[in-house]
Amino acid sequence: MVDKELIIPAAGRILISKPSLDDFYFGRSVVLLAEHNEEGSFGIIVNKPMKIGLRDAIEGFRDFNPPLFFGGPVETDTMFFIHSLGFAVPGAQKIREGLFWGGDPDKIREMVILNQIRPEEIRFFLGYSGWSAKQLDQEINQDSWIVSEARSEQIFKMKPEDMWSSSMKSLGKDYAIWANLPSDPELN
């Protein structure tokens, strides 16, 4: 079995915030990395749905109203999306097998109108999570994040409220104990 602490950040992997990460945005977060290179890292928090749907934020999605997610504290006035539609969306970038980000938003709108997209094939986010060169590596070394593998079904089909604890449990018995702790230890 691979030591979870030795997995390095890369596109298509997830960052699981450690319970000790007491941060308004990133506490109990699961972040899908879309890019990680010498210039920095780009990802989307995938387990924080907002209280509004897509059609509440953007016109043209009358009968299609999946929840919007908070993707991170950078550019919170900008919409991002991840999907499993592949290169049927021009400009999409492959993160890993079955998982893509971005592409032509007009094509997404067209596919929605033609009923060619199901809500479980796409997620929409306001904002993203970004790190400058070496910043993410420093945060991992400071014990803020665990890097793990991601599965497409985990991203699209798992209930967002279960994703963090399920991800912790998937790391094995050394981490499973953290999965059931209350977010505020004083509530224990």
Average pLDDT over all residues: 89
Largest sheet: 10 strands, mixed
Q: What structural class should be given to the helix and strand makeup?
A: alpha+beta
| Broad shape | globular
Tell me the distance between the termini. Answer: 33 Å
CATH superfamily: VC0467-like
Percent in strands: 25-35%
Q: What's the quaternary structure here?
A: single chain
> What percent of residues adopt helix (DSSP H or I)?
10-25%
Number of domains: 1
Which regions contain 5 or more consecutive residues with pLDDT less than 50? none
CATH topology: the name is VC0467-like
Total number of helices: 6
Order of helices and strands: EEEEHEEEEHEHEHHH
CATH architecture: 3-Layer(aba) Sandwich
- Number of DSSP strand runs: 10
CATH hierarchy class name: Alpha Beta
Radius of gyration: 17 Å
How would you sum up this structure, described in words?
With about 190 residues, the protein is of the alpha+beta class. The chain is about 25% helix and about 30% strand. Strands 1, 2, 3, 4, 5, 6, 7, 8, 9 and 10 form a ten-stranded mixed β-sheet that branches. The protein has a single domain (about 5-185), classed as 3-Layer(aba) Sandwich (VC0467-like). The longest helix has 11 residues, at about 160-170. β2 (about 30-35) and β3 (about 40-45) form a beta hairpin. It has helices at about 55, 105-115, 135-140, 150-155, 160-170, 175-180, and strands at about 15, 30-35, 40-45, 50-55, 65-70, 75-85, 95, 100, 120-130, 145-150.
